[in-house]
Write a structure and sequence with these properties.
mainly alpha; Four Helix Bundle (Hemerythrin (Met), subunit A); 5 helices
Length: about 220
């Protein structure tokens, strides 16, 4: 007696790599990571706020105004750097849109623009750090020089901008890996969700920097 075999339709199962609700596992993982990372940045910003606004006007080492430290040129340069980083989020959106359409070559060009924006941001930040360490905060390298104000300002500045800079550097490497995957044909229209996941990380990095820029340079 022949066995009764039935063919199960493929559409009864979700596509490979997706949950039953159609959410890519990688996207869920990235959102989970970003929520935890946002809490870390929130801790940094809360610590900065506590140190700054916890200093009284009559303290021996008051907290300096950002304008006195960075100057008009420094703030304007960082504002322009912020603009470049925000523009890189726009190019990332275009890269994803073209990848979803199957226009791999156009998507790669937009992704290259995103990578260049990230590298430009890191270059300007490196220039700023060098200027601050050498010219504005010499007490960081010479123990015989006393800070004219609360040294926690410099400490929290490097903690916040440095932690964010590491995220930008990781994001640039992430985007380079995505770009190489697209060039090799491993990332196509079928798995364009990989570009979307990278975009989620990049947009998060841009959003966090707007908060850091506002707290450190403007308030």
């Amino acid at each position: 007696m022949a066995a009764n075999t039935q063919t199960i339709p493929d559409d009864m199962f979700p596509p490979l790599g997706e949950e039953s609700l159609g959410v890519v596992h990688g996207k869920v993982g990235m959102w989970t990571f970003l929520v935890m990372d946002a809490m870390t940045f929130a801790g940094f910003l809360a610590g900065y706020a506590r140190l700054r606004w916890g200093v009284g006007a009559g303290d021996a080492q008051p907290w300096p105004y950002p304008y006195e430290t960075f100057g008009t040129v420094g703030i304007q340069l960082t504002a322009f750097n912020t603009f470049i980083l925000v523009c890189s989020s726009v190019t990332m959106v275009h890269a994803l849109a073209e990848a979803l359409k199957g226009n791999s070559e156009v998507a790669q060009k937009w992704l290259i623009a995103t990578i260049i924006g990230g590298l430009f941001f890191l270059g300007v930040q490196g220039f700023e750090w060098t200027h601050l360490i050498r010219d504005v905060w010499p007490f960081l390298t010479d123990p015989n020089i006393q800070a004219p104000y609360n040294p926690n300002f410099a400490a929290t500045f490097f903690a916040l901008t440095g932690f964010h800079g590491c995220h930008v550097a990781i994001g640039v490497l992430y985007n380079i890996i995505i770009l190489l995957g697209m060039r090799s044909g491993k990332i196509t229209q079928k798995n364009a969700s990989l570009v979307e996941i990278a975009g989620l990380y990049w947009h998060f990095v841009d959003l966090v920097w707007i908060l850091v820029f506002t707290f450190v340079y403007l308030l």
